[in-house]
């Protein structure tokens, strides 16, 4: 997603990343201390800040792993039954 769209939404949900260009951009959103913590965020953790977040400062949020969502996502990656035969035909 482009930085322009994110800025227009004025709400940021930032998962762990190490790309320096993105981290530099996020320094205009979060404090330097928050930006330093981003590469260390755990799986399913994220910083949230902006108009949609009812907090004065960025907050650390997380969500639990959901096996049903993973299974559904894995199923979407599989070709539909008969797709290989149709492609060969």
Write structural notes for this entry.
By secondary structure, the protein is α+β, with helices and mostly antiparallel strands. The chain is 42% helix and 16% strand. The protein contains five helices and three strands; from the N terminus they run αβααββαα. It has a three-stranded antiparallel beta sheet with strand order 1-2-3. The model has no long low-confidence stretch (mean pLDDT 86).
List the defining traits of the structure above.
89 residues, alpha+beta, 3-stranded antiparallel sheet, elongated
What is the CA–CA distance across the termini?
38 Å
Query: In what range is the share of β-strand residues?
Result: 15-25%
Number of beta-strand segments:
3
- SSE series: HEHHEEHH
What is the C-alpha radius of gyration, as a whole number of Å?
18 Å
Largest sheet: 3 strands, antiparallel
Shape verdict: elongated
Assembly category: single chain
User: Could you name the ranges where pLDDT drops below 50 across 5 or more consecutive residues?
Assistant: none
Question: Averaged pLDDT, please?
Answer: 86
Helix content: 40-55%
- Largest beta sheet: what is the strand line-up? 1-2-3
Structural class: alpha+beta
Q: Number of helix segments?
A: 5
List the helices and strands and how they pair.
Elements: H1 3-9, E1 11-14, H2 20-26, H3 32-37, E2 45-50, E3 59-62, H4 67-77, H5 83-88
Give a concise summary.
By secondary structure, the protein is an alpha+beta fold. The chain has helices at residues 3-9, 20-26, 32-37, 67-77, 83-88; strands spanning 11-14, 45-50, 59-62.
